[in-house]
Amino acid sequence: MQITYKNKRLENVLIVANALISAVVAATFALLFGFDKPTLFGLAGPLLAERILYALQVLLLLAFIAEKAIRLSNSLSKAEFLRNNWFEAPLLFALLVALVGAGHWFAAGKAEATAVRHLAVGVYLVIQVVTKLCRTSVDLAASGRNPTQTLIASFLVLIFCGAGLLMLPRAASGQNLSFVDALFTSTSATCVTGLIVKDTGQDFTLMGQVVILGLIQLGGLGIVVFGAVFALLLGQALTLRETVAMQDLLSARTLSRMGNIIAFIFVGTVCIEALGALGLMGMWDDVPGRVAGLHHKWFCSVFHSISAFCNAGFSLFNDSFVGYSRSWGLYTVVCPLIILGGLGFGVLYDLANVAVDRTKRFLKRRFDRKSRLSMQTPKRIQLQTKIVLAVSALLIVLGAMTILLFERYASPGAVGPSDVPGAIFQSVTARTAGFNTVDIAAMSASSKFVLILLMFIGGSPGSTAGGIKTVTLAVVVMTVIATLRRRGEVELFRRSVRVVIVGRAITVTLLFVAVLFASTLALSITENSNGFTMDQIIFESASALGTVGLSTGVTGPATPLTTPGKLIIIATMLIGRLGPLTLLAALTFNLKPARYNYPEEAVIVG
User: Fold this and answer.
1) What are all long-range contacts of 569-573, with beta carbons under 8 Å and residues at least 24 apart?
2) Which residues contact 78 (CB under 8 A, 6 or more apart)?
3) Residue 491: what are its φ and ψ, rounded to 5°?
4) Which pLDDT band holds residue 375 (cuts at 50, 70, 90)?
5) Higher confidence at residue 98 or residue 262?
6) I need a labelling partner for 200 at 20 to 30 A (CA). Which of 206, 216, 457, 491 fits?
7) How far apart are alpha carbons 320 and 332 in whole angstroms?
């Protein structure tokens, strides 16, 4: 909802002031909780520094309240402003209850009352900063500028903020992270890749692991989508411009149901990840003593459920899921999470709509006979959904069969998955999830080549997965078939595909190939002294570009990877997450299409 203000200059001043106040709020939390003891860079002792920082947070709280009051008086319509900020009144009331009630109604001790007051102020500040950040992300996406530039900027801001948090002393176990290692970990988490240079379970504290988990969730769904979700949760309707921006970012086709799609993404994500966490709770007992305590089990379940659904591949165990290769929880919980995350929210939304429609029709035919004749035509599965489901199923089956064949018969000395469940798991996880139940480096060369192909293809459009995407593969393959059959149009499920879609699919494929070769060449130069083979380097490049996370030993906690090599993989992961076509669109957004054509002349190809 767009609010009109009387004094535009005053509103611009408040926007800048909000940004500065939010930055100071973030800095106070970092100084309070990011170090072993609260610090003001040696200017005061820990106790005095803590008091000063808490006092500063109170002043920042008053600044936020003053900002709201000024905006209310500056708004053209007071009712519109109050309607748009309806949650501020209950939030302030809850804060007042906590401040006044501490020491009277609850937290009787003086120390406890002080802690409650600090917690209340901190929660209020966090809610304010998160609200403003989400609103800003949606406003920037709807500003009329190139939405892809907003998407790229949001990822870069998230990556650098995550790197800063991971560099805090309390985020890492033992010695502090270097900037490059923190940037690598933050990029890998935000781009839901899973490649690591530090052991997630051993080299990071609980705070660092929570930061990584937050980056995975935000990076998997996109911070702009979270902004829209937050706005809808607060009862704020999206403007037409905001809806168009969200349509572009989500690759959706209609504007009318954009709010429903965003709500479905949020509710679906929460429900799927919650069910996944519940399903994983019993799996940790399969390896006695590895996950001790109920709290640790819950955290492992939540962490791996989010990591699997977002296709991130981060694990709290140094051998990923090798220790749980015989656990059926991998195949009944983790595999479905990976597949659902890789199908794409548009496909899940379409399947949910069709399922609801079929259920309603069944109930009407069963219990409401009068409405049988007035029922509308049943909803059908869209072409996009058919392509995604067909190609995904085909890739999983073919991938599992080839891996099983190569590991069992073609390379009997290799230590790969020689059973059907193991082959299926590696076929599923290679399409951008990044978990493994066997040592990837010990697999046969032919199986690793199959994994490279699966990583290159990736998941589906609009999902948390990377790669060229399943629909792109289908369009390219059907273009070849149409050429061989001398058909004038590319056909899929008795539907014709537009020429512009064919051109885009070919462009995406060629750009991915170009980036893969470029990153492989660059790594072969920077890692020449480390003794890595070319198949290891191209595997790592494909894993980074497909945002997968599988590794043959080039990356890892004990890797000799050079700093330039880490920077190359960082850039490759970012390109793979955003997509080369997105980067190209951001660079060529202002180019105007030519309004003329040159004369045609035949050329010979093939």
Assistant:
1) 569/184, 569/195, 569/519, 569/523, 569/540, 569/541, 569/544, 570/183, 570/184, 570/187, 571/519, 572/515, 572/519, 572/541, 572/544, 572/545, 573/187, 573/188, 573/191, 573/193, 573/195, 573/544, 573/545, 573/547
2) 72
3) -120, 140
4) low
5) 98
6) 457
7) 17
- Dihedral angle over CA of 70, 73, 75, 80, nearest 10: 110
Residue 331 scores a pLDDT above 70: yes
Q: Pick the closest to residue 497 from 474, 520, 529 (CA basis).
A: 474
The encoded tokens of residue 312 equal: 């991130």
Backbone angles phi, psi at 490, to 5 degrees: -85, 130
The mean pLDDT of the chain is: 82
- 378-408 pLDDT, tens per residue? 788 888 899 999 999 999 999 999 988 888 7
Cβ 345 vs Cβ 462: under 8 Å: yes
Pairing of strands 495-497, 490-492: antiparallel
Burial 160-170 (b: 16+ CB within 10 A, else e): ebbbbbbbbeb
Domain range summary for the chain, segments of one domain joined by +: 383-587
Helices 383-405, 345-367: inter-axial angle, 10-degree rounding: 110
Confidence tier at 4 by pLDDT (50, 70, 90): confident
CA distance 109 to 128: 29
